[in-house]
Amino acid sequence: MAELETAKSAGFCFGVEKAVNTVYSEIGKSRKIYTYGPIIHNENVVEDLRKQGVGIAMNEDDIVRIAEECRKDCTPATVIIRSHGVPKKTLDFIREQGLDVIDATCPFVARIHRIVEEESAKGSQIVIIGNAGHAEVEGTMGWSCSGASVIETKEEAQNFTADPEKPVTIVAQTTFSMVKFDELVDILMDKGYNTNVVNTICNATRQRQEEAREIASRSDVMIVIGGRNSSNSAKLCDICRGVCPETYFIQTVRDLPVLDLGSAKVGITAGASTPKNIIEEVQNYVRTGRREF
Ligand code: F3S
To answer: How far apart are CA 248 and CA 236, in angstroms?
Structure first.
């Protein structure tokens, strides 16, 4: 029988749990509910919310349309900001359209927004170490009053230039790889600017990455469960593959090929937006060899 080890840190982190609970607690309050973007990178949860009447606003055009509909049918609406956060101008825009906002931005992300807002106002040049285009990074950029540079690769760090007369403040996307962050900071520090580094990778991410590496290093097969678009899950997969070549990245147990696990040691971890029941399905499959669908 396969020997199973599941990471204690697998699944919802504090910020995601808080945001998802916020949405569920608003259902049934005689008003329309929307999330700004899917509340988490998990199709099952998003579908469940859709069935309960929760809509998704993807952009400012959707906000304008929702505000018009609410005016026409005299129903109030609440827009819930997900844990990734949004640029300041987006928050202001939603409120200007007359919609209520519940801001479920994770407090660790909101802290980065404050640092970026304050340091840019003092004249610092902002560098965000993270994935360009990721919603959290876009949101963080939107709190700087003087723009921001996003650095994701060694080449980008090597090519980075700044005004030598002004300080540079470096922050990180909360789910960035710790090892990569240190590498990129070393390159940037060598440039000799007056640099202030705030490592804003959140503790939940650190623990999840460390535990994933430890478990993968003593496993024959590693299973990482996470959404297709979840960058923290993709990073877990990279980390695990680095020490355990037989690593599978799946959304649900249905994505797993039929495995002959025998007496293999099997490790499981999951990204911050993976619900408990999806992890349990995978655990049951590893224990029994049966997929119940
Ligand atoms: Fe917050 Fe960290 Fe989760 S920043 S949303 S607790 S991954």
So the answer is: 11
Tell me the per-residue pLDDT of 88-125, one tens digit each, with 9 for 90 and over: 999 999 999 999 999 999 999 999 999 999 999 999 99
**Ligand 1 in reach of 139 Cβ (< 6 A):** no
Give the distance (Å) from ligand 1 centre to CA of residue 174: 7
254's CB contacts (< 8 A; 6+ apart) are 291, 293
- The question of whether 5 is a catalytic residue gets the answer no
H or E element that contains 129: strand 125-129
Nearest to 1 by CA among 293, 292, 288: 288
Q: What is the pLDDT of residues 79-93, one digit of tens each?
A: 999 999 999 999 999
Output the residue whose Cα is nearest ligand 1's atom 1: 15
Q: What is the pTM of this model?
A: 0.88
